[in-house]
Structures
1.
Amino acid sequence: MKIDVLYFEGCPHATDALKLVKDVLKRLNIEAEVEFVKVNNPEEAEKLRFYGSPSIHINGIDLEEGEENRKPLFGCRVYQSENGFSGLPPEELLIKKILEAKGD
């Protein structure tokens, strides 16, 4: 499994997103290749299907369902959860998608 944490320089949530991914993998006892991918401009955002910073791709697929039809965004990303809006994805969603990718 490969997990990319995509971000742009200056994103206040980028390192927290990377830490969240690593913490969840450790807790689940799952090994994965994790890469911290800097997106430098709108052209790279389009090429990488980057929907704002931070974005998490598991095996090349964005964490949020239905995002495939969304336009790439070279800007900040906001995630919605039961508790409102956040600059980080809900941990439950990350866990669910990692387990799906693993086949559990």
2.
Amino acid sequence: MVRHAVTDHTGKRLSGWMDGISLTEQGREQAEVVADTLADVEFEAIYSSPIERTNETARAIASRHEARVHTRRALGEVEYGAWTNRSLRSLMKTKLWGTVQRFPSAARFPDGESLREVQVRALDEIERIAADHPNGNVCCVSHGDVIKLVLAHYIGVHIDLFQRIVVAPASVSVFSLSERGPLILSLNATLMSIPAKDGS
């Protein structure tokens, strides 16, 4: 799973599902670095959240493989509802912010989703994709909280601890799914080599 590269909102505002939030020049450079890093991985398919910033990142990766990007709504950002486009500084002053940080299983965004709902729909989609590609490599480009929630499940960490996981912009996290269970091969890798499928 790859987190999208940076936008003008990254680390400042919650973009959510807003239109027109594209990668900055730095973000486009990050996407190219990720694409170069993953250029030698043989992907059966590349999937992305339908949101612009993830699609831009995914297209950079796909360009190295002459592949098309398949969009999946379930890989999309958290539905932040009334929190969309608000600054993180202002949100940190709310009571709900404390819940999101310390007791996220109880958090529901106003007019939006709960984090438990996000985890379930993202995991359902990842497992559908895995079932379609049981023996191949797949790239899924998504969003920070979504990726953290997926990783928390496969690591075996309760959702209330998912904020301990760091997923930086343009980072790559690699896991393997099989009948023997999930294996975490790489977490939050940036500007470094990614382990091969055989672990080397």
